[in-house]
Amino acid sequence: MSNTKVSGTSPINRRTLLKAGLATGTAAVAGGALTGTARADGDPLITEIQDWNRYLGDGVQARPYGVPSEFEAHVVRRDVEWLTASTESSVNFTPLHELEGIITPNGLCFERHHGGIAEIDPANHRLMINGLVDKQLVFTMEDLKRFPRENRVYFLECAANSGMEWRGAQLNGCQYTHGMIHCVVYTGVPLKYLLQEAGVKTNGKWILPEGADAAAMTRSVPIEKALDDCLVAFKMNGEALRPEQGYPLRLVVPGWEGNMWVKWLRRIEVGDEPWHHREETSKYTDLLANGKSRRFTWVMDVKSVITNPSPQAPVTHGKGPLVISGVAWSGNGRVTRVDVSIDGGRNWHTARIDGPSLPKAMHRFYLDIDWDGSDLLLQSRAIDEMGYVQPTKEELRVSRGENSIYHNNGIQTWHVKTDGTVENVEIS
Amino acid sequence: MSNTKVSGTSPINRRTLLKAGLATGTAAVAGGALTGTARADGDPLITEIQDWNRYLGDGVQARPYGVPSEFEAHVVRRDVEWLTASTESSVNFTPLHELEGIITPNGLCFERHHGGIAEIDPANHRLMINGLVDKQLVFTMEDLKRFPRENRVYFLECAANSGMEWRGAQLNGCQYTHGMIHCVVYTGVPLKYLLQEAGVKTNGKWILPEGADAAAMTRSVPIEKALDDCLVAFKMNGEALRPEQGYPLRLVVPGWEGNMWVKWLRRIEVGDEPWHHREETSKYTDLLANGKSRRFTWVMDVKSVITNPSPQAPVTHGKGPLVISGVAWSGNGRVTRVDVSIDGGRNWHTARIDGPSLPKAMHRFYLDIDWDGSDLLLQSRAIDEMGYVQPTKEELRVSRGENSIYHNNGIQTWHVKTDGTVENVEIS
């Protein structure tokens, strides 16, 4: 795909970047005095009556379920064909560069499937709880909707998000480098209520959620997490889960890696030890430089990325006021601070976190600057309420090597050139 | 429409309700012990492998922009044909009984048009600020996106929401009685930045926002509100505004009646007095019993409604644990408490407000009860941070008569019958 050209990976390229000299953009300013950017009067598009101001438009029966404007047709999930062998076991990416705020619209939430999308009639769906329980239970969807329910905003990030970037700047756009994440409001039943109903035996220390899709996805989850904040969710952003997100039922595992959030949830087995199934051994473990693997790297650590400007969203208006926008998140709780650098990490400015700040949810940040038109090396660095500071990619490589593609929460660099185009680069 | 039959309006009907005796449902219980509702083991839908567990499903290229499951085709906006003469100047309703949490999906946000949906290419859209300003300005969409922006969750309620209920219980479902409301995350530029850029003259006391649709909707807004929390918004729930919600630009007037939130915003004129245009004189004013009208009833006062169970969402599982769910909101700020009655207002239980509590946003509340199968008369009563208590419909009629259809925030009553069906009624 033209949007995914490999670039900026060679040492030469890095040297070139350094020789070019780092940004001299002026410090961040608030308020953005825009004198001069507003068009002069006499623009016929405002002084003349336009057709849409002259004729009746569609009425209220045109779209019982609404869709975006035809002028937004470019705002879609995209995949990278060469990443995977099949589309049934593959991934597509959220267009982060087109979005704002902290909520991802349901139609744009990235997808990751291991056996394609299961199409399930909720009337025929069941959830079984079995294993080390006093009473094996089978619930219909109606049964589940009789338990007390909760609504929580959580991000969901794939453990492999940014994985292609371990070995250097690869994919030219934040949709591809960071788009395996979304953030929605989930409505569901706390899993602890269902486990209490079944009665977990004293030797029940782990659960194994199982999906009803062709891959029958399974992961081992410690009972402490299951009894803490996990939800058995049936709605996202107010409406039913989308088919590609597990309709009619998905497990929500707040702050932990995405593939534990089992979709099309059909069974929860309680056991006394982890199962070590395929998706937690041959996959979703981090192979270290010494050949050993880290086991059970569940939490998605603090991370951030600048979404605008970025390679897919260049600066088209020239120098002057520029809104730098981005997202940050942490599986450990709230993001308490985000710093932004426009000179590749030499100087940092505290960004403005705007909108609700909720634990284990996406946060939106801004830095409003007055761009002098010189080269910028944009970076963002998030800090969470545990005091964890987002590391550089170099620091990650020193501690974990380059064998793994998982859990890359390193700092991303965008090179904004004088012509406004943006490239994915690394500096060292 | 079959969903909108007129019922429960005659005194006889009200007496009948009283004779039937009020609910004896037991008090609210938390946790909902569900022994017995879970199906016995041996259900082939869980013990046997199903087709969707056996075959690969659609891959990640199937839907670049996702849509709901085919099994959710009934979750749509609906209009009431006899309410209006044309569909271009009409309204449809949010299916509140199908939703959860506090965010309304963009595709289900109710519509109210006065000249149909304007279809606008954002490249050809302009916003002019003129009148009593130092410098008349015309902004392109790109210009506006260079100002600092904010993200805020706000409800938008039409002043006529519940208007048909002034004269008694009319429409049989909360989609029709309360569905002229939605709540989304707006992203936009604080209007005060644009007005500061233009420079409001000392005698500039009002603004007149104007729409680019065929109705050229205008309303007078005091400068104090314009400089307080109004936004010029270009995104809702993270993505671009939907065409029916004003794409590419809409004025957000937090907590105030919906038709002031001018869609397809093309011009903001600054003046020294209100304009008294058609939509704030012949319409959107409250005619009192004495023949005089209340002028400028901007704030949408505290209000709530039980969404489940309700006439469109009957109880299908018989007695035992029952989740009573509803929404509450106030144009004055946060909702601090919601009380729920199951016996027509004789006894009140404090409901559980769940999820984010944000000013001028929708709140979700629950009362989890153990239903004994007897008749219920469900009511909810919200209280906001100003201490304002949602009134009964009788109290509203005493103070304002029955001439107006606007600003009905009275307490709604649902009659849950022993067979689980639900009817819109009034008791007195």
Structure notes:
The structure is a homodimer of 428-residue chains. By secondary structure, chain A is mostly beta strands. Chain A is built from seven helices and 24 strands. Chain A has a five-stranded mixed beta sheet. In chain A, strands 6, 7, 10, 11 and 12 form a five-stranded antiparallel beta sheet that branches. In chain A, strands 19-18-22-23-24 form a five-stranded antiparallel beta sheet, with no helix packed on it. In chain A, strand 4 and strand 5 form a beta hairpin. The longest helix of chain A has 9 residues, at 11-19. At the A-B interface, strand 1, strand 2, strand 3, strand 5 and strand 6 of A face strand 1, strand 2, strand 3, strand 5 and strand 6 of B.
In short:
Chain A is mainly beta and 428 residues long.
Secondary structure elements and pairings:
2 copies of one chain form a homodimer.
Chain A: H1 11-19, H2 44-47, E1 78-79, E2 90-93, E3 112-113, E4 127-131, E5 137-139, H3 141-144, E6 150-157, H4 174-178, E7 181-190, H5 191-198, E8 206-211, E9 221-222, H6 223-226, E10 231-236, E11 239-240, E12 250-252, E13 265-271, E14 286-287, E15 293-294, E16 303-308, E17 320-329, E18 335-341, E19 349-350, E20 352-354, E21 363-371, E22 376-384, H7 393-400, E23 413-416, E24 422-425
